[in-house]
Fold:
Amino acid sequence: MTALYSFLLLASPPLVHTLAAGARVLSGLHPNGLLEVRLGSPFQAMDVDQLDALERALEGSDDAGGDLGSPIQAILMITSSAEAQASRPAKLPQMSVDVRQRLASRERDLHAFLLEAAKEQPVIALGDGWHLSSSAAGLFMAASTRVCTDRTVLALPECRGGLSPGSGSLAYLSRLAPHMAMYVALTGAQLNSHDCMCLELATHYVCTADVLDLLNELRCAPAGYLDVPLSRRALPPPEGLASLFARDVHDLLDASLSKCFGGGVGSASEVRPVLQEERARLNSMLRSCGWHTRERAEAVLDVLDAAATALRRADDGAVAATFGAVRKTAAGALSEAAARELELAVNSELLGRLEAGVPNPNK
Structure:
């Protein structure tokens, strides 16, 4: 069977077929059986129409109900424009409660669809752009092969918008160390490619300068050998991008994040005061006479200061609900069905609060 693949692309090759142009989705089937699908807008701006168009792309149909002209045994992939995403913060777009409900439902369906596809065929997601967030983060993590580059930034900013991360994100967070999962989910921390590789949110790092060559090789490679160009182009992420996992500071940072977001914190309401205490402790280290100690403390303090700012801006109800959801995932890898059920219960309650007009006092 011809292998089918999904792509998150940021290059601009000519695609054979335009799909739902109003929803900014393009798709094309290459001679080797590779279906390439591109989103023409920033990931955090994904809307229901765009997700509907993605589903039609996966089925190989256009918006008029036709097909791409060849049997498609492959499934999806998503692409976006680096230029369109540049300088935009990771955040949820403004939308009504009804639209958010529909968007969450479409995201759950597409995530489940990709996971099923990945059981039989490779599904490759290439995120060579800024701010893979919200729906896009969950779809990115559904792929069996997840490629990041110098420009990749992944974040889960749902708490600031009054929601909890989607089922796809929750399922993957369950595979992380509990304190890292909690830190990422509550603060919406922006993770670069080095972070993503260390946390295994991405499977391959490819230099941005090599992305076009990689895509061209994937379009031309025999269907059964798409792993060859990936292996040839993949590199270890450069140490210059190291932040959370920088060699000199990782142990100290990991201990601080464990203290603030780990199992010793009993409830969401305890996170902020524990975080404040840890920041005070690190500030005292800045008075050390050892320059190396001061330098390490400053690096960790920068991360904790950003976390404290994010929590101040986050919705209290969303923080509490997300804390409970992530804590339930800490026992081990969460199945897709369990993640879907958990996310549906949590976000149904949060959407009810939004519909009732409960304000976020931190905005």
Notes: Residues 1-23, 62-66, 71-76, 80-90 have pLDDT under 50 and may be disordered.
